[in-house]
Amino acid sequence: MIQLINANKTYTSKSGIKVKALDHINLEFNARGLVFILGKSGSGKSSLLNILGGLDSANTSKILINGQELKRFDDRTCSIYRNTHIGFVFQEYNLMNNLDVYENIALALHLQNKPVEPSQILDMLSVVDLNGLEKRRLDELSGGQKQRVAIARALIKDPTIILADEPTGNLDSQSSKQIFEVLKRLSQEKLVIVVTHDREYAEQYGDRIITLKDGRVEEDTQINAFDDVITLAKPIRARLPLSLKAKMSFENIVQNKLRLLVTVMIVSFLVAVLSTVYTALYVSADVTGDLMDLSHQTQLVLSEPIPFTLAETIAPKLNPSTPKKLNAEAVLKLRGIAEKNHAILFPKTHLWLGEDWLRVKDLGLKIDRPEALASDVVIRPNEALLEAIEDATLTFVSNIKVLDRERIGRLPEDRFEVVISSALAQYILVSQNKPIHDYSALLNQFLNVGSFHRLKIVGIVYDEALLLRKEQSILNTSYTNLYVHASFLRYNPLPTRLESYGVQMTEKTDTHALIEALKTVGSITLLPRVSDRLNRYTRHELTLIMAVLVPIIGYFALIFLGNYIASSILKRKKQIGILRALGAEIKEVQWIFMIEVLFVGLLIVLLVLGMVPYMIDVLNFIFKVHFYDTFIAYFHYDVFSLGMGHFIEVISLLALVNLVIVFTLTYHINILDPVDIITGR
Ligand code: ADP
Ligand code: MG
User: Fold this and answer.
1) How high is the pLDDT of residue 599?
2) Is 538 in the pocket of ligand 1 (CB under 6 A)?
3) How confident is the model at residue 92 (pLDDT cuts 50, 70, 90)?
């Protein structure tokens, strides 16, 4: 026996008017039989059925089965109650349009964690006279057939009660008759409660007729009574199989291809821009770290304007037939600027030696054999770096200031003596198979520079900037300096040379101001050797960009992604409602969207990874242009080189954002009663 005690329902309309839909109704139902609920439209029939069916949790009613009260009417209790005891049949059928007849019926079994036996489903189809229609799609069925599918779905659960709210409301009389025949048959074994307008059918088939008026029972006529004890099923929590959730997710993705594409493109683009700037910042910070470790160099190289990019100036193919010199006036101006900014200007000379620029290779170093570089101390450079080394020129510097640094040996005293950098010393030592730090072994050895110069090594400078060897960054630098006596340049037999000036910065130099000032000197080309401060200058700009980009991009990305998911959820409000009405808990439904969002997230991640390298190229280009056709650092993007930790960081952040979006957006479904979702109220 099922007892409904104190069924109450008051609706408050938007304008604040209260409508009493059910007014303290008490009813008892027997274990089986066909009960009709009649009444005019608005008399409370649907409200009553929804409370009986656990579709409406917001009320003070109690339901007792065999005298035992159901637990508090919270969402989970209601879901379990619906899943275990209730088979619902709606006027609007409420079948899942994306599933075929067979799958619609199987869904009820899935939700009950019961094995799906094809024979059982086929049997059920014959109970509702639908033999052979199991593979039909729903839009290939008539209204009456759909309603019988809905009945089969309700029935296969083996529920305690079958509830039907105007099941024939949309059907012609022939189909209606069929439905009532089926329901009548079922009521031999189950309690079937049917809401209808049609008194004629009620009188023809009913074992009991209850008439409602203004939320109260006006009339209650018992025709046949069967008061057996109900055999109660064990409570079952609904579980949607993962495959079904995934199927529903992907169906939606496929249905919304265009929308998905646009969303993914826009969001990926936004995230890629962000990622690009972030990478630049990250690399930039890394470069700074390298510099701090490797070098104390604080010099800028200024050179004459030449119609080549920096890469070309250091390439051996450069035609130096029209070497230009900075005129005295410009040099004076530059010196003034340098001094004003706490820096020192000094000359550098690139010599043209015969057929070729003097190349590192000419020193007889085997650096084109990478294995020569594979030592513990010298980190193996990447390919681009190796190329840069091979093509690098030597710069002859005769500024004694530069040599006021840590060194072993002494300064050059005549034009046949040279001081080399520790970096060059290491390469020579490696090529001679000597211990890499045994610099003193090189003292008094001769360095053959091309076929013209035989220079005695008298000293080695320690803090010459090493080439940066981290994979992410290749910095603009000629390979090394050779420090010679001032008279070397005077006696150099070769007429061709390229003049440039170095600017040595001090602690007090404001790099930013210095660069801005230098830019005012007409056609000077800045070839910034990398320095910590120069790098900060770069970062200063990037950080500004970042500060503006993050909020804007974050805002738009969220809007686009949120909009996509929101529309996806709203579009399927009805499907969600059906699943909920069948007994699925909100958590199960959320999974469908979770899978979809994770898929979209994955697409976005892949696209971003594909896009960022190109954007980095653009960034590098902008930097080149911005810094007068010179570059400070190349940004190389390789997500794996950023380290696994960083990668996981990014991925988890993305996953977290996805989860938040789904939970926030499905929350509003959570607070609705399934009945409201289905009816779209
Ligand atoms: P019936 O199914 O007999 O037509 P209902 O149970 O649907 O009646 O409705 C009973 C009363 O409650 C009606 O006056 C109806 O307007 C009102 N009502 C039903 N649902 C809502 C709702 N969600 N909000 C406001 N009023 C409602
Ligand atoms: Mg109704």
Assistant:
1) 85
2) no
3) confident
Q: Are residues 382 and 439 in the same domain?
A: yes
Q: How far is CA 523 from CA 307, 311, 517, 629, in A?
A: 11, 19, 13, 12
Q: Give ∠ CA 136-138-140 in degrees, rounded to 5.
A: 65
User: Do residue 517 and residue 612 come from a single domain?
Assistant: no
Q: Whose CA is nearest to atom 5 of ligand 1?
A: 44
| Number of domains within the chain | 3
**Cα angle 340-523-329, degrees, rounded to a multiple of 5:** 55
- CA of 45, nearest ligand number: 1
- 265 Cα distance to chain centroid: 12
Q: What is the pLDDT of residues 296-353, one digit of tens each?
A: 444 455 544 433 322 233 322 233 444 445 667 777 888 888 889 887 776 666 554 4
Q: Is 503 part of any domain?
A: yes
- pLDDT score at 193: 95
Q: Is 52 in the pocket of ligand 1 (CB under 6 A)?
A: no
Judge contact between 538 and 321, C-beta under 8 A: no
pLDDT in tens, 121-173: 999 898 888 899 999 999 999 988 999 999 899 989 889 899 999 888 888 88
H-state helical runs in 114-241:
118-127, 143-156, 173-186, 199-205
Query: And the tokens for 173?
Result: 């009389």
Asked if residue 655 belongs to a domain, the reply is yes
Domain that holds residue 610: 251-284+535-679
Residues 569 and 663 in one domain: yes
Residue 179 to residue 56: CA distance in whole angstroms: 26
17 Cα–ligand 2 center, Å: 20
456 and 491 share one domain: yes
**Nearest atom of ligand 1 to the alpha carbon of 47:** 6
Q: Are residues 380 and 256 in the same domain?
A: no
Atom of ligand 1 nearest to the CA of 48: 6
pLDDT of residue 445: 87
Answer yes or no: do 520 and 541 share one domain.
no
Q: How far is the CA of 534 from the centre of ligand 2 (A)?
A: 76
Instruction: Residue 228: give its domain's CATH number.
Output: 3.40.50.300
Report if residue 289 sits inside a domain: no
Supply the pLDDT for residue 367: 38
HSE-CB at 417 with a 13 A cutoff on CA atoms is 14
C-beta 47 within 6 A of ligand 1: yes
